[in-house]
Amino acid sequence: VKIYIHMAAIRPRSSSFSRSTSAASNAVPGLKHGPNGTMFLSSGIPDLDKILGGGFTLGSLVMVMEDPEAPHHMLLLRNFMSQGLVHHQPLIYASPAKDPRGFLGTLPSVMVSKDDKSRAHESEKEKGLRIAWQYKKYFGEQNSDSQRDGKSEYCCDFDLRKPLERHFFTGKHIDCITLKDSADLTTFHDRCSSFLSQTPRTDGNVIGGRIAIQSLCSPQCEFSDKEWDMLSFVRSLKSLVRLSNSVAIITFPPSLVSPAFSKRLQHLADTLVSVKAIPDEDKELAKLLTGYQDMVGLLSMHKVARINTQVPAILEATTFSMKLHKRRSLTLECLNQAPVHGSSGTSYGTSGSCSSSSKTGTLDF
Amino acid sequence: MAEWICRTLRDGGLEGEHAPALIIKDTIRCPLSSFVFDHVLSQLSSFILSNKSQSKGIVLVALSRSPLYYQQFLKSKGYDVVDSPCWIKALDCYSDPLGWKSKLVESGSILNRDPGSSFTSSLCKNVRDLDNLFSSIIEIGKELAGDGKGRFVVAIDSVSEMLRHTTVSSVAALLSNLRSHDQVCCLFWLLHSDLHETRATAALEYMSSMQASVEPMALPANGQIGNSMNLSLMEQNYRRGKFCVRVKRRNGRVRMMFEELCVEISGVKFAPVSSEDNVISQSLVPKVQFNLQLSEKELNDRAKVVLPFEHQDNGKTTQIYDGRKSLNEDETEIHEKVNSSGKGEIIYFRDSDDEMPDSDEDPDDDLDI
Fold first, then answer.
1. CA-nearest residue of chain A to B170?
2. Which residue, of A2, A199, B82, B255, has the greatest Cβ tally within 10 A?
3. Distance from CA of A65 to the nearest CA of B (A)
4. What does UniProt give as the signal peptide span (chain B) (predicted)?
5. Looking at chain A, which residue has its C-alpha nearest residue B293?
6. Which residue has the higher pLDDT, A48 or B268?
7. Stated pTM of the model
8. CA dihedral B255, B260, B261, B262 (to 10 degrees)
9. CA–CA distance from B190 to each of A74, B160, B163 (Å)?
C-alpha cells in the first residue's frame, strides 16, 4: 500500500482534544501549553520532549533510575539544568559531591546553528504530490525548521562539548547544595520548600522552576540507610511540587536500596525513566542493533506524567538508544533491531516496568 | 587483562576526574583475591620504582594482614622496603585496631615489645574513626609524594575488615573522599563479597570504576560436598579461578574481560580463557515478538498446504477445500462441473519462495526531497 501525502499540509498533532492555542499567545519562551490545562517546560533534549508529548509537565515529579555502571543520568541532568539556565528559570541543584557548584562547569551550551547545516532541512516547497512510503520520517523535519529561528526556542539543542557561558551562572536564582554531610534531609527539605513557594500555582506571572537532585540514595550520605526518611522526603517534595509551577527531577540508583523501597520510589514518580549501560565491543549486540557504534546507552520510559486527565499515555515504543550525534548532542532513537526468534524470549523486564515491546499505536481518533 | 588494569591504575585519572578505583572481590568458593591484591601491589611498585608512573608512592592501609607480611612479600619480589628510599608506607591497622593493646600498655599490664619499623609509618588505634583514618592516609601520602603536584596510590586491605567496625555509608564516604582528592592517583581495595549484605557490596561497587572478581572455575555439582569428585573440584578452586573484570568507561559503556587465574609458588599467573565459555551477554534489548524466519519443519509444512484453486498435477481430481470439515464427501460432482465448463478457469500460481516481502530497495529512494 502506498500513501500519497501532500507535504505542505502536514501539521503534527499532539492529541485530538488539544486546545487550539496558537504559539503567539505564549509570552514566556521557556514554557508551552499542554493538553488539559497543563503547561510544559522542556527537558533540554528535543527527542525526549517529543517522546513525552511536549516536555515535563509543570507540577510533576520526574525520577530517573540510574545504572551504577554508567553516568547517563548526568547527561539528562545536564541538559535539564542548561535548558533552565538559558531560559532564566530558577534552579536548585543538590548532589552528594563536596562542591556541587563545580558541576555547573560541565553544563553544555546551546548549539550554534551554523555548525548544523548538514542537518538543516532544505525547504524546497514543491507543489506536486509526492509518494512517501515511510511518511512518519518526515514529520519531525518540518517541525525543526520553524524552530530554528530566534533565540527564544522552547527546547534548545545543546552542544555537550562546549561549556555553558559563565554569565548564565550569575544570578540569585541558582542554588547548589551538597547533601554530603547532612545527617538527614530536613534542612534540604526546607530549602526546597522555600524555593517552591517562589513559583506558586496561581495565575499571573508563570515562570517554571527547576529542582535537580542527583543520586539521592548515594551511599556516601549519612541518611542513605534511613529509607523511610528518604521516602517521606520524596513524598513531601512531590506534594509541594504539585502545588507549584515547577518540575523536580530526582535520580537514584535502584540497586543500592532495598527492592521494596525502590518500588515505592518508582510509584511516587509522575514520570519514570531508567537509563542503562551497554556492554562495550559486544559483537552480538552489534549484530542485533543498527548504529551500535554510536550508542552510549539505553533509555526506557516507564511512566509519563498525566495530570488533570484519566487517559494514560501509551507510547509507541518504550526503549530508546542514546546516541551522541557527532559527540555533541544527545539524540534518542527508537531501537532498530533485527527480529529475534520470538519463542525463546520473554519480554524485557526492568525493575518496576510492565512494558513489553509490543508496538501499540497511539490511540488516534 | 590484569596487566591492563594495572596500567589503568598507574595512569590515574584525567584532570578534573575522580581517581580510578579498583575493587577486588571474591567469595569463599574461590578465595584467591588476596593473591590478586598482592599482584596489583607488586605491579604498581615496579611501575613506581622504574619511574614509569606519575605517582611517587603507595600508602598501604593494612587491616587484615600485618605490615610484616607485606614487608616480606615485597622483599621476595625484590623490592626492599626497609633500607631503600621511601616509596611505600603502611598504616598499621592490624596490630591494634581498637586500641586495646595500648590501653594495657598504659596501665602497665603488658610490655610493649614491638620495635616498629620505618616501613610502618604509624599505628592506627581506632579504625572506627574514618575521618581520622582519612587524614592519616593523606598525611602519609603527602610525605611520600611531596606537596604540590605529587600523587600517590592508596591500597586498602581489606574493606571487609573496615565494615566490621563501621557503617557502609562511612566507608563509602571515605572511598569517595579519597577518589576526589587531587593527590590520589588511584585507589584499590579488597572485599570478600559473601561476608556482607548485597546492598553493602552494591554500594562499594558503586564507588568503584573497575570491578575485578574471582570466581570458581568449576562448581561442585548438586552441592554434595562428600563426593570425592566434588572435593577435588573444590581443591582446584583454591588454586585456579576465573578472573572477571568489568570496567566503567568514560563514554558510559561497560567493558567486560575474562582471564584464567592460577596461583603458583612464585605468585599469580594470568592466562587468556582457554575454554569456549563465552559470556552470554544479557539481552538488554526488548525481544520483538514476531518471527520472520521459518524453520525447516515450517517450510516443509508450508509446501504441503493445499491451496484452493491450485492445480495439483497428480492426475486425481483436484480437491478444493472450501472451509467445510467434510472434505471427502460429495465433492466429485462439483469437480466435474468445474472441469466440464471449460470457459472460466481460475489459474493460480503460488508465490515463489524466493521473493522476499519488503525487499531491500526502498521505494522512497526515487523521491527527491
1. A220
2. A199
3. 14
4. none
5. A341
6. A48
7. 0.75
8. -170
9. 28, 7, 12
